Amino acid sequence: MSDDQPEPFHILLVEDDPADAGLVKRAIRDGKILCAVDHAKDGAEAIDFLRRRGERFADARRPDLILLDLNMPRLDGRQVLQEVKNDPDLRSIPVVVLTTSDIEHDVEASYLLGANSFVTKPMDVQDFFDVIRSLENYWFNVVKLAK
Amino acid sequence: MNAPVKALAMKRRMGGLRRWWRVRRMLALVMAGAGILVAAAYLWTEGVRARSAAAEARAAAAAAAAPYASSLGHALNKRLSLVRGVAAFASVEAAKGDLVQEFVLFADALRTSVSGVRNISLAPGFVVGVVNPVIGNERVLGNDLLRDPRPGFAETVRRAIESGDVTIHGPLPLIQGGMGLIARRAVFLGGAPWGAVGAVFDLQPMLDEANLEALAPRYFYGLRRADGSVIAGDPAAFVVDPILERIHVPDGEWELAVAPTLGWEAMGRDHVDRLPLAAVFLGLGLLIEAVIVLVAERRAALARLVDERTRDLDRKAAELSSAKGELEQFAYVAAHDLQEPVRIMASYAQLLKRHLGDGLDEEGRDCLNHVIDGAARLKTLLHDVQLFIAEDRVPLPTEPQSADAALDAAVDALERKGRGARAAVARSPLPAVMADTRRLKEIFVILIGNALEYRHPDREPAIRVEARREEGFDVLTVADNGLGIEPRYHEQIFQVFRRLHRRDEHPGTGMGLAIARKMAERLGGRVTVRSEPGKGSVFSVHLPLPQPSSHQGTAA
After folding, report:
1. Which terminus of chain A is more exposed, N or C, with fewer CB under 10 A?
2. What is the rounded CA–CA span in Å between residue B123 and residue B313?
3. In angstroms, rounded to a whole number, what is the distance separating the alpha carbons of residues B70 and A35?
4. What's the distance, CA A32 to chain centroid?
5. Can you give the residue ranges of every domain in chain A?
6. Contact A19 B348 (CB under 8 A)
7. Is residue B333 within 8 angstroms of chain A, CB to CB?
8. Is A103 within 8 Å of B390 (Cβ atoms)?
């Protein structure tokens, strides 16, 4: 990985809570990797974005990674995950589920079968930043290798 | 109670009810049958009894009547013998010629030997010539017997001549007044009729002698000749199916009819009156029937009541269960959703501290730290509550999982928190057990975390984790050399939010051991403690042994 790589790493953040979204964006901004973050404020918007529905998303970029919050109004994270994994075009995009507590993994296990990874939003900001960064590194490398 | 069990219970109840109705119907049929049988038997025995009672009554009446008839016959014959005697005397004395003088003496003597003799008369040539006593009988003197106009009178005399024996006439109204019986006998002298002797008897003394009045009040009687003409008593006696006794008299017979005063049926009842007895039986039967019906009604009512109450209970149980479910759902969602804002508060407080850290004074940093700590504690608390509630929702393991892996994860997690777990824990190899790694790791975190937290101030913590098998269980033990727990707290420590220390002494949510126990119980096991205050504690986690079939997966 090097700075002369011109194409940024595209992340779609699906998160209804602006404060949480702010934390994620800050963590990504502070990272070493050049990332472009698109923010969908709920599940329905995320699906529209991914399928480039409507004028607003006509030019939407296909993300390299989806960071998906679970609990959202309208279409929630479980439904978004199902939509993505059932869509042949979108299926290959890795999805990382953000959860409030580790207990959710087990309770929601049956809903989250298609998720590639889970991240529990940690209490500590530094921890959170570290987690997001490790995700970036991991997926950036995987995706670049796949390309 | 779940639906199939409830349905089964309902079915069983309905079955019981149906059975009970069947039994009731059968009981009613049996009762009705028994009632008809009893009634038939009663009527039959009544008939037999009535017949036998009538027979008994007739036999009794016959037995009663016979002596009276015999007495009456005797009284009559006594008087007829007297007439025969007079006739014999007359035939002898007539031959001698001094008849009249001797007759008076003889008749006097005879007359007083029998009561009710009106007179004794002598009729030579069939015209009354002598009568004794004369007084009161004057009118008979000179009566030509063969020409007497009274019906049957002369006829009787002629019959006496023909038969040569005593004939009787009457009873009939007498010339002297009253009812009497006239007896005659012809006297022959040398084969030719000489005349006749006669005697008139009052009927009543004969009846008195036979004591016929003694038949009353139970019986009444009638006395008649063979031709049907009534001599004495009540003619009605002959038309009520009486006992008939025959009394032989010269040229014919009399009939004595004896019948019960109140009729034969009354006589039968009078004998043994079983009507009250029958009434008592009937009443008793009705009472038993009533009791059975009442008991049956009560049982049916009771069954209905039990049914109703059971339905109530089922409904309430369902309501409770649903309420409990709702409450748990609410608590789970609340615990989960509350963690979000708490985490954001803590995160932004940390960001603030990061950006402004150097610009803040001591007090400012202190305040910010309290915000961060409070949020962190709240988050932990909510996390533990969620963990406790979610316990029922997390699936159970289907095959044994490595306890070593769970212990590794637990020690790593504690080590990351800077609790010095790795140094303190001494371990033996652990088997694969019927517990999922996540739960077992959580249990280890709680037990080892407690052992580190409640270490003895005078010595380094030493924690030993071992496994053994015991009576169908894998037992994992976590033994420490910490503070120990007084026996009276051994049960309390497993309760939710129960703490033995102030927060500034030892932090914690008070949820740890409650979660550990709930997890172990959910896995089919339990968590127990042995401890000696000042020396240390041993926590034992019992987990059921894997079923034989589930070994195969791990062997590969």
Report:
1. C
2. 121
3. 153
4. 18
5. 14-146
6. yes
7. no
8. yes
The b-or-e profile of B400-414 (16+ CB within 10 A means b, else e) is bbbbbebbbbbbebb
Could you tell me which chain B residue has the CA closest to the CA of A20? B344
Whether residue B1 has pLDDT greater than 60: no
Contacts of A123 in chain B (CB under 8 A): 343, 346-347, 375-376, 379
Structure tokens that stand for B488 in this block: 């009276």
**CA B79/CA B424 separation, integer angstroms:** 151
Buried b (16+ CB within 10 A) or exposed e, B518-529: bbbeebebebbb
Contacts of B69 (CB under 8 A, 6+ apart): B245, B246, B247, B256
B490 in any annotated domain? yes
Select from B376, B379, B438 the Cβ nearest to the Cβ of A106.
B438
What would the two tokens of residue B168 be? 């009787």
Residue in B252, B235, B257, B130 with CA at minimum distance from that of residue B187: B130
Give the CATH superfamily of A14-146. Answer: Response regulator (3.40.50.2300)
Helices B275-356 & B3-96 angle (0-180, nearest 10): 170
Beta bridge partners of B201: B117, B181
pLDDT for A61 beyond 80: yes
Q: How many domains does chain B have?
A: 1
Q: Could you tell me if B163 and B251 are in contact, meaning their C-beta atoms sit under 8 angstroms apart?
A: yes
Judge whether B23 lies within some domain. no
Q: What is the pLDDT of residue B18?
A: 65
Chain A residues touching B379 at Cβ < 8 A: 123
- Best mutation target among A17, A71, A123, A129 (most B Cβ atoms within 10 Å) is A123
Query: pLDDT digit string (tens) for A97-141?
Result: 888 777 776 667 666 777 777 777 777 778 778 888 787 777 766
- Do B383 and A106 lie within an 8 Å CB cutoff? no
Q: Is B438 on the interface with A (CB under 8 A)?
A: yes
